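REQUEST FORM: STRUCTURE PREDICTION
Request ID: SP-0412
Submitted by: Lab K.M.
Chain count: 1
Length (residues): 275
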Amino acid sequence: MQSLIFLRLWLLSGLFLGLSLAAVPARAEAPCGGDFAAWLSGFEQEAAAAGVSQRAIQSALAGMTYDPTIIARDHAQGVFRQSFEQFSGRMVPPRMPRGRRMLTQYHPLFDRIQHQYGVPGPVLVAIWGLETSYGADIGKFPTIRALAALAYDCRRAEKFRGELLAALRIVDRGDMSAAQMRGAWAGEIGQTQFLPSSYMKYAVDYDGNGHRDLIHSVPDAMASTANYLKGYGWQAGQPWGEGTANFQVLLQWNSSQVYTKTVAYFAQQLGGAGE
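STATUS: Completed
RESULT:
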């Protein structure tokens, strides 16, 4: 994942999963106030050159319009100044009872995931609870339209152009349609908020229905989160408290020390041996 940005400040979520897609020969440069339709046409050519099918391009981008509210949200971000005590005190206690119920309800699933990926259930439940309150708040923004606005804007055009291309690839491989792809305003998708580039690399079909569905499938979302952490070096059977190797892996999920300490603390309170 690329360097994380505090995108949904109330959660410090972000999942800025820094996975670069293969370079493509054409580049649709953001014109800083130029015509959006012309920029979009250039991006469609870039996507085609990168191997995305015309079917996926048209289904995702036909009739696309610019959404200035996304850019307003992006530019309005401030600096997160809560301490660990403030943030964890606000976020963990109201999520703890349901977190314990989730551990019990999905106990066989978490055992299976831990056996395969090495990541224990309390860590996954802590991330799940902090990111979307266990899937209750995954966001309602059309992902592709949001990413198109961010890719068109000059501030971080290169990053979000790659995320937009990854979103088209998700559609192209059949995980979900463009209309089904809804989430946070900055493009995060699913119950633990994956950016499309990380969705492409780490999402797994854990319920065996033939689709990687991180929005509706709890098994897919939890296993994909574990797969992500394993991909960044999670060490099975080892602690995850501050100063450990696994804590450094959690920082790849979100680079905020406050957020990561809250994940570690939450997981420990759920019954994990985090220290």
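NOTES: Strands lie at 141-142, 182-183.
Reviewed by: T.R.
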